[in-house]
Amino acid sequence: MAEDTSKQIAELNQKVDMILEYVNQQRLKSQAVDDLVADASIIGKDVYDSTVKALDDHEVVLDPDQLRELGIRVAQNVGNFNSILDTLGSAMDLMKDVGPIANEVIIDTTKKLHEFEQKGYFEFLREFGQIIDNIVIHYGVEDVRMLADNVVAMLDVVKNLTQPDMLKSIDNAVRIFANLEMDDIPEYSIFKVMREMNTPEMKRTLGFFMTFLKNMSKNTINQEPIN
Known about the structure:
The chain is mainly α. Among the domains are: 52 residues; 39 residues. It is 87% helix and 0% strand. The protein is built from 8 helices and no strands. The longest helix has 56 residues.
C-alpha cells in the first residue's frame, strides 16, 4: 500500500513539474510578445513622428474624410487588386517561358546580322545611299513626278527587253560588237556597198530593218502619246 502511495506521489510531482514548465514557457512567450509590442510601439511612434514632420515640412495637409474615402475605395476594389496581381503573375510566368525563346531569337538575329556584314550587305547599302544622294542632287521634283507618271511604260519596256528572244538578240549584238577590231575595219566604196546590197545576208538585213521601221511607224500612229 505504501509503495502505491509513493508511486502516485511521484507521478503527481512529475505532472506538477510539467505544469510549472508549461506556465514558465507561457510566461516567457508573453514577455517576448510584450517586448515585441513595446519595440513596435517605439518604432511606430518614430515612424509616425517622422511622417508627420515630413508632411509638415512639405506643407501637406491630410483630410481625414479623404483618407476614409480612400480606405473605402481600396476595400471596394480588393477584387480588382487581386485580378491585377493575378495578371502580373501570369505576365511574369509568360516572361519566364518567353525569355529563353527571345534570347535564342536575339542570338540568331545577331549571327545573321554578322553574316550580312561579312558578305558586304551593309557596305552595299551605304554605297546605294550615295546613288540616292546623286539622284536627289541631279534631279528635281518635277523629274521625279514625270518618272512616276511614266513608270508603267518604262516597266513595260524593261519587261519586253527581258524576253528570252530579245535578250538573246541583245547578247549576240554585244558579243559581235565586242569582237570587232575597231582598228581593222575595211573601207567600203559606193560600188562595193552596192555589190554587198545584192548578197542574201544584206537583203535579209534590209528586210529586217524595213519590217521593223514599218511596224514601228504603224504602232506610233495607232498608239496614244505617253504623257
